[in-house]
């Protein structure tokens, strides 16, 4: 490579870097200067029977307390495949039915999550029998499962929104096969063919560009985390990120605040080794009553239509097992 060619490559590299820096700086300045709407956000919760059981709680007791003591009116409920179809073509809906019926009694509205990838680790919750299927057979089983769930609940007015998969393209997190855009679109089209309710698609707020997920559903939902942990750097706080970052990001992708949710608002600790394997002091490093309020107020400044807290089961566990009701009480103001 001669000197002239090396100079050209160097100049091109510098130009590309300057463009990237300019775009990143412009985005950040726009986010910082963006109007602070602080709108009247509607708060809800994600409820996981599986996580309540992991905490060794009576999951029905937690769910009822959530409805009656906190007066929650918006609930996101997973339909774990391994629970509702433990054997091929043999369905068990009793626990989902119970949750939906109890919500209906109190005029609460439900987002029902469909598909293989669902909220809570390990993200994919497949029954054991799928291990013996080919890739093609497994794909057919997923679609049949989605259709079966929609058919069961499509006439139930308590179901307000269908969520198709959970953070479908975040394949580096969780124990899940990689999902393609065509596969997700196939599932969305299937749900649309069966019912006309709005469809929610979710993505990571901090680890994704939101493309193409923000374009694929009627509604878009982001995660929102303020303090995280990983094995390389330990605890990490997103102190540098203004709340309007999420709103500007949505605007650039053509998504309005009225059709955007915070689908997973951090309101429980980050559990590097599982909730029951950590000292209670370590729980408080990433979540406590003050941090919950900070996160909720931050979510209000984001300005999306709704925000669903992540961690109601932990609030109850903290109150019942450790006699600390501070987080439970702090959350009440956001539902009443």
What does this structure look like?
- The chain has 336 residues and is α/β, with parallel strands linked by helices.
- The protein contains 13 helices and ten strands.
- Helix content is 43%, strand content 16%.
- Helix 6 (135-153) runs parallel beside helix 7 (181-194) and helix 11 runs parallel beside helix 13 (326-332).
- The chain is globular and about 45 Å long.
- It has two domains: 1-33; 39-332, Glycosidases (TIM Barrel, Alpha-Beta Barrel), CATH 3.20.20.80.
- The strands form two sheets. Strands 1-2-3-4-5-6-9-10 form an eight-stranded parallel beta barrel, surrounded by four helices.
Tally of DSSP helical segments: 13
| CA-based gyration radius | 21 Å
Specify the overall morphology: globular
Helix proportion of residues, in percent? 40-55%
Q: What is the chain-wise order of helices and strands? A: HEHHEHHEHEHEHEEEHEHHEHH
Overall pLDDT score: 91
List the helices and strands and how they pair.
Layout: H1 3-33, E1 42-46, H2 49-54, H3 59-68, E2 74-77, H4 81-84, H5 94-105, E3 109-114, H6 135-153, E4 159-164, H7 181-194, E5 198-203, H8 213-216, E6 219-224, E7 227-230, E8 234-237, H9 244-252, E9 260-266, H10 280-283, H11 289-302, E10 306-310, H12 312-321, H13 326-332
Parallel strand pairs: 1-2, 1-10, 2-3, 3-4, 4-5, 5-6, 6-9, 9-10
Antiparallel strand pairs: 7-8
What tags apply to this protein structure?
single chain, 336 residues, alpha/beta, TIM Barrel, 2 domains, 8-stranded parallel beta barrel, two-stranded antiparallel sheet, 13 helices, globular
């Amino acid at each position: 490579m001669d000197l002239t060619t090396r100079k050209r490559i160097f100049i091109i590299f510098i130009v590309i870097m300057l463009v990237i820096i300019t775009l990143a700086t412009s985005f950040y300045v726009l986010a910082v200067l963006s109007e602070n709407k602080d709108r009247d956000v509607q708060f809800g919760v994600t409820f996981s029977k599986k996580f309540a059981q992991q905490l060794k709680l009576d999951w029905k007791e937690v769910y009822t307390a959530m409805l009656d003591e906190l007066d929650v009116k918006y609930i996101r409920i997973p339909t774990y495949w391994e629970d509702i179809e433990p054997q091929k073509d043999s369905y068990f809906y009793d626990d989902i039915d119970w949750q939906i019926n109890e919500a209906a009694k109190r005029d609460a509205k439900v987002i029902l999550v469909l598909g293989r990838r669902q909220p809570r680790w390990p993200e994919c919750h497949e029954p054991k029998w799928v291990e013996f299927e080919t890739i093609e057979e497994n794909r057919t089983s997923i679609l049949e499962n989605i259709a079966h769930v929609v058919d069961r609940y499509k006439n139930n007015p308590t179901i307000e929104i269908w969520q198709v998969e959970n953070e479908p393209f975040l394949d580096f997190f969780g124990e899940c096969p990689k999902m393609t855009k065509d596969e997700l679109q196939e599932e969305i089209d299937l749900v649309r063919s069966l019912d006309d309710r709005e469809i929610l698609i979710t993505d990571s707020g901090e680890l994704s560009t939101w493309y193409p997920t923000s374009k694929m559903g009627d509604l878009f939902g982001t995660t929102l985390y303020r303090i995280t942990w990983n094995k390389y750097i330990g605890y990490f706080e997103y102190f540098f990120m203004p709340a309007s970052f999420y709103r500007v990001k949505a605007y650039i992708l053509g998504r309005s605040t009225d059709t955007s949710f915070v689908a997973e608002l951090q309101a429980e600790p980050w559990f590097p080794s599982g909730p029951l394997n950590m000292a209670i002091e370590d729980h408080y490093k990433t979540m406590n009553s003050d941090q919950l309020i900070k996160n909720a107020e931050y979510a209000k400044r984001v300005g999306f239509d709704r925000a669903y807290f992540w961690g109601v089961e932990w609030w109850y566990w903290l109150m019942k097992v450790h006699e600390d009701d501070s987080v439970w009480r702090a959350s009440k103001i956001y539902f009443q």
